[in-house]
TrEMBL record:
Subcellular location: Cell membrane
Reactions catalysed, as given in the entry: alpha-ribazole + adenosylcob(III)inamide-GDP = adenosylcob(III)alamin + GMP + H(+); alpha-ribazole 5'-phosphate + adenosylcob(III)inamide-GDP = adenosylcob(III)alamin 5'-phosphate + GMP + H(+)
Gene coding for it: cobS
Descriptive protein name: Adenosylcobinamide-GDP ribazoletransferase
Location (main, coarse): membrane
Protein topology in the membrane: Multi-pass membrane protein
Native source organism of the sequence: Clostridium ljungdahlii
Annotated EC: 2.7.8.26
Amino acid sequence: MKNLINDFFLMVQFMTRIPINKSFSCEQENFRRGTVFMPVIGLLVGGIQWIVYKLCIMVLPVNVSVAIILLLGIMLTGALHLDGLGDMSDGFFAFKGNDKIIEIMKDSRIGTYACATIVMDIILKYSLLCSIVPIFSFIIIAAPVIGRFSIVFIAFIGRTAKKTGTGNFFIGNIGKLQMFLALVVTVAILFCICGMNPKYIVVMIFAALIMAILINVFCNKKIGGLTGDLFGADNEMVEILTMLIASVIITKVL
């Protein structure tokens, strides 16, 4: 139990900006076990956003409430995943060699591709949430849960693109047991907390897995593997894909 508590708070500290002023054991084994809690981190971030949305919607229009929770999400994660998406865009679309791409991705300065991609990411999320949340507000939780689960999956199937980096805590360090438990936790959250129809859960998770596979293939061709930045990019794209599917379901089915 002590190890589980350590690993959970390690992941909270690693994946969010929620202040936890304590040192935790952070060996490879801790990160391996901690990946099971990735969907729970999505629940934590999305749950806080959902509560704030429910409070905001009492006095504010839907579009303003959505803008507030998007800002809140960026604050809770320290723009960790957005930064990864931006770095990927700058590096991959610079049309340089492998080594140069990684060098560009490590550069703290933001380029044109990163700026455009981040802006489009936020616009897409804003537009999709404005249309979905009046009917199914739990998408605020479902999207980050599935997004974090996809990080576990892509780290499970991927290989490292460089010898050092935060991504190496996870890439090649996740076993079948952790992968299975992360899937079970994801399904449990979507079914028990979000109250989603099982067939829609299957569709969204399957779509997330396909997206992660395509991203992994693309990254292998560009730089020969994955980095921590690419986890963030994967999360953002899977979140948007999840919202797109929810929007289609609401429009065409419900």
